Structures
1.
Amino acid sequence: MPDISYLNALVIQVRRDILRQVHKVNSGHPGGSLGCTEFFVAMFQVIMDRKEGFEMDGIGEDLFFLSNGHISPVFYSVLARSGYFPVDELNTFRLINSRLQGHPTTHEGLPGIRVASGSLGQGMSVSIGAAQTKKLNNDDHLVFTLCGDGELQEGQNWEAIMYAAAHKVDNLVVTVDYNGQQIDGATDDVIPLGDLKAKFQAFGWDVLEIANGNDLQQVIDGMKKAKERTGNQKPVCVLMTTVMGNGVDFMMHTHAWHGKAPNDEQLEIGLSQNPETLGDY
Amino acid sequence: MKKYTDSGKKDTRSGFGAGLTELGKKNDNVVALCADLTGSLKMDEFQANHPERFFQVGIAEANMMGIAAGMTIGGKIPFTGTFANFSTGRVYDQIRQSIAYSHKNVKICASHAGLTLGEDGATHQILEDIGLMKMLPGMTVINTCDFNQTKAATLAIADHQGPVYLRFGRPKVPNFTPEDQVFEIGKAVQLQEGNDVTIVATGHLVWEALEAAQTLHDQGISADVINIHTIKPLDSKAILASVGKTGCVVTAEEHNYYGGLGESVARVLAENAPAPQEFVATQDTFGESGTPAQLMDKYGLNAEAIVNAAKKVIGRK
């Protein structure tokens, strides 16, 4: 595992990447991206057993699927800084002829992406399929998925949750970004999610919680625990509480920055709160 | 005229089942998923032979399409099975994003297509599915005409890299194509040679087209009959060669005239060699309950309708 001070520096640098990507094209989703920065760094730097390079089939390595594809800025930044493609390519985010589409896609052949996502509610089903293929291939690696909490309003998720338990897909860890926010406001005001822990448990899942998903060490410890809980006949769910917009004070604790880019002045404030660590692209 | 013999009526869905059974034995990467219609789709034998490669999804088609997309990652070739309505319209966005746009090697196998589903009525009789699926970039669309062709198509699509929509039906229909046929995706099959009119038919309407050609022959009209099993990619060359000879065309399909085979043929002709065309298809309507024969008669999808359309289109030359 890389040194924790390096990982903390990487978190700050990824936040800068997120802000700069969305600012440049005046579009994209900084809020959820910032909230999941620690999670992505933990997954790609510590938790997942990954191979060098990228092959679509991902045999003999852990796989990751992003269901809430709109938080592509954090995904792209961490993929680039984990060696999947040149960091400079972050300059092309959302531009014409770029591999870094607004929402992640396989269509342009960007290494690290295994399915298109963006239309919500589909990633869990896809990851279940990938996990079942791993079992058929006698590949004992794991499949990880991240989905949004608001995204759980999509009914397909509950089809998938029911299926994964029925088929004992126990090589799957689904993490829910539990930030309580969605485009129109707080999830409690839009469509309350109720007791998510009880719901997943009632559907037959093993549920863990990460109380502060913006504490890197907590995320690492929580996801390690989740890995240990696989292979026990039950799919594993991690309810990870995060703060949307984490790390940029005026973006925190609000849905306002879900899908809005900072202006020049706001960018400068955001960057000043996250001084350059590993070098900007 | 060539003679075609019905070797005994069989349902095309049983052709799919037979093909899947054979595939199960010869290709370990083939997996099958079904949304609570295993018997209707004739997937029982595959399920019995390979329980570890058969996945009962329950009544959850959206989830089934997503799982199938995911299963391709690692080299499996998933065949999904449910009715055509639930294979397309119900799950369009799942197919669009997770399968077509992501270019996943999923075979979407759809039974009970069209009016010939019969008594269940319009909720289940999809007449828009060909249009929905052919509009998806990269999607191959196949609509087979009898048991033997459906079995051959099922085997062939396993060897094709990329998403495929395979459409077939419920009723027993004449089985007249060769048992040992080689199914070539995108290649039209010339069934009759003629000079006065081209009849391009797909699915259950192919047999009707042969009967129509016989009736026309008896009245001194010779028809070129083309069996189009692959609607996308369409064999434009075969269609242009035939219409170049006859100067007019009738298209025949168990589908709405919006979005179906007829429109694809019209596009090919418009771009290359415009010619009069008549459409034997449903006229922008939903279906209803009834026996398959009653419905095909009421909605004008039979040999008689093809004969009338042929005479009309010849008059427009």
Note: The interface with chain A takes residues 31, 52-53, 55, 57-58, 60, 62-76, 78, 93-94, 96-98, 101-104 of chain B (CB under 8 Å).
2.
Amino acid sequence: MSNLLGKGMIDGLVVTAKNFVTSYFDGNRKDRLFTYQYPEERMKLPENSRTFPFLVYDGTPDQMRCTACKVCETECPPQCIYIVMERDANGKPLLRPRVFDIDISVCMQCGICAEVCPTNAIKMDCDFERSAHGRFETLLSHLPELLKSNDYYHQIKSAEATRVDATRKPVKKAAAPAPVKPMPTPADILTEDERSAWQRGCQSEIGTGPIVWPPPVVVKKKVAGTNTEQNVSAAPLPTGTPWHDSGIDIAARMELAKDRSLADKLMAAMAQLDCQACGYDCRGYADALASGTNSDFTLCTPGEEETKNMLEKLLKEAGKL
Amino acid sequence: MDAIYQLIHDYCPTMPDWLALALAILLPIAIVMGVFLTVFALLTWVERKALGRIQNRRGPNRVGPVGLFQPIADGLKLLTKEDIVPNAADKVVHFLAPVLVVVPAFMVLAVVPVAKGFIAVDLNIGVLFALAVSTASVLALFMAGWASHNKFSLLGAMRGVAQVVSYEVPMVLAAVVVLMASGSLSSVSIVEAQRGLTGWFVCKPWGLVGFVIFQLCAMAEVARTPFDLPEAESEIVAGYHTEYSGFKFALFQMGEYVAAITMGGITVTMFLGGYLGPGCDLPKFGWLISACWFFAKLGIIVVINIWARGTWPRVRVDQLLGFAWKLLLPLSLVNIVAMAVWHFAPNKLVGWVESAVLLAVAIVALVKINAGQTFEKRSYRFTS
């Protein structure tokens, strides 16, 4: 019977008829009619799916993880990221971006920015509904749109986000015991006139010569307990890291660390952001270079060429290279 | 036509003769075209839905309730598309082909009795007209392929010609038994000859074989899967309508679907008793009931077409031609003999048995003879 003429054709008809009829009974099962009725029905995207980058924040949007270290900007193959660091009124960097733009019409969704980010701030989103009517403004994402909460990150990629959270905590703990010593800012020690004079001086001197910080001015200051004004010299502290302020020019920083150990000099050459792009904070990277545990002097991305060249010079002078 | 002319005269005796005549001509055309274009639109929707379900999809369901307005959306989309004519094409023939492909499909409708007493023209050579006109579509098909100046188009057109010419022969021979049984070429007489409980020609051994042959040939003639070689998209892009876009493409699709419907209508008329069915002779609503019967039977044919399309893969060119010349042609000749045997048998039972045995033997013999033609199983040198 199995070789009966046309049996195969009839069998085929039976199969398709069964498929047709049963689809009306178990059609809601996704292994039967696997079409997703897209706008109403959405597929849970797999964790590995990725579209465009977004920035993670913890808690509130101003607690963003991004330190504006520009590693992603440097690494981005199509160069679609543009970052400007936030600075306070005195030009001191605030370790967060003022401008963070991603041009998603240029972005090729490679995920390299998320891979290189030292602070786990930039991650790949799963949002694919990004069509727009304009090629330019509408496809350029600015900081407010880019910022998304850690909860959202957990929502779209729970396993990855949990892994990230687990690696982030110890870093924070390690950083906590060594808080950056607050440097006296010009606001603390200068009078209003002097401060503006100093700022003008700084601005005029940029690129012309070393800026000495703190400025070698003798300031008149009220000393507590006495009513007499006393001459106080604002000399740098003999220990500590007075150069640990990215607002200071690299030449000035090197000047401040002139008489220090190799590790201190190396540290002064860093960008002073503690952004961890290199895998350490600035102190740690300097120690690692000085002790020879890490010989790669190109890791300080925010410092760019000048830091790299300075580190190379210092290491050569010390005979480490 | 005459009946409508009479009707107009009865209700409106003041109407001038020429107007009454024009109305009597145009009214049936309008009705038939309207009804069958609606059926065509519905058919595309039904086909896409059914094929979707067969292939674990949902089919169109976005436009209108359950996607019912999809054909309208498709039509609007094709109307607004750019019409591209290749530089090297023969412009006039390229333009005429899609027009001509629709014409024969609609002309066949003239002789299909859609309901009792409703036929556009009751030609006394109705079946001959239908068979002759439906074949004319191959001319349009070849015009399209040749005028496009494209090798895929030409290949598709050549295939189409070979296919239609080959299948025309068994198709006509399968229709011959019906003409022998009814003694007439008029489609209304053929339907009327099928009255009775087992009167439908499909209920007789020669009728059943004739029906299967005719149905297969009809599918091949309108180039539907599994016989869609002229437009085999996996082999020759879209065959003869590769170089057509926009509304010309829509006309090709329409011609194809309307031809499938009209061939179904001819099949229903010749083998399935046309508009006959319980209640078709009622004095008041007989015409409506008979129309329902006709369209129900047409629906069955259409479903068979869709079902076959969703199931069977496309045949090869050699299989296609071999099937027509080596199996269907001899079988339809035997079928005519079987019909003669049935006709001259002393009583119905003897005729039934004789013709059934004759056909069974013929089928087995033809299959055995053709079985030697299958290819050897291929063996490969480097596979274990």
Note: The interface with chain A takes residues 50, 53-58, 61, 307-308, 310-312, 363, 367 of chain B (CB under 8 Å).
